[in-house]
Amino acid sequence: MPRGVFITLEGGEGAGKTTLARRLAEALALAGQPVLRTREPGGAPGAEALRALLLSGDVAWDPVAEAMLMFAARREHVAKTIEPALAAGAWVICDRFADSTLAYQCHGHGLDPAVWHGLYDVALPGFEPDLTLVLDLPAEAGMARAVARGAPDRFERLGPEFHARVREAFRRIAEADPRRCALLDALLPPEPLYAEAAKVLRSRLGAPL
Ligand SMILES: Nc1ncnc2c1ncn2[C@@H]1O[C@H](COP(=O)(O)OP(=O)(O)OP(=O)(O)O)[C@@H](O)[C@H]1O
Ligand SMILES: [Mg+2]
User: Fold this and answer.
1) pLDDT tens for each residue of 83-104
2) Ligand 1 within 6 A of CB of 149
3) Mind listing the pLDDT tens digit for each residue in 24-34?
4) Residue 46: in which H helix or E strand, if any?
């Protein structure tokens, strides 16, 4: 049984990650490829418990403590869900992963990137996605989509400068690691965006799409 491949989808709020993850998972499954779709934070029982803690808003976390919890959840997710699926030959599509912590906590909120690197090395030594699709969307377009969904609150609370920094961070992450990452234009409508993503999966991973 060949090992599966690990694909992550990254990008700002409303960039279309979940829509594209669903579409890719559906197409791979249709082509006969066992596939697991998952998302962060969460994706395993312990990680879901931590997700509830992190997203409840009940605690004003110290930024380093928050990042530690994110990586604790991530390690649990990899150990209990992602690794077993890859070992069984499944292709795993994960909606957000470690790059989101770097973009949001470090570039968005000002956490020292050295903390991110240190936690990554402890939690996931030698582990990284085979492919990361970075969905690049101008902050204003993300805001417009949030309004269209009737849920602009979170977007507005963090402010346009925050979202612009996060966008820039994702672009830099993709630029710094072109072997792992592919930057996609998330202004494309869903089907053309899927076609671009499928092209990348075919050429880099030999996906049956
Ligand atoms: N390629 C696209 N073009 C235009 N609109 C899109 C596209 N993909 C998704 N949308 C719409 O934009 C909104 C956000 O999409 P989606 O939930 O997939 O984004 P997301 O990146 O997962 O967002 P979040 O960060 O909030 O989880 C939805 O209303 C969806 O229908
Ligand atoms: Mg989503």
Assistant:
1) 999 999 999 999 999 999 999 9
2) yes
3) 999 999 999 99
4) helix 45-55
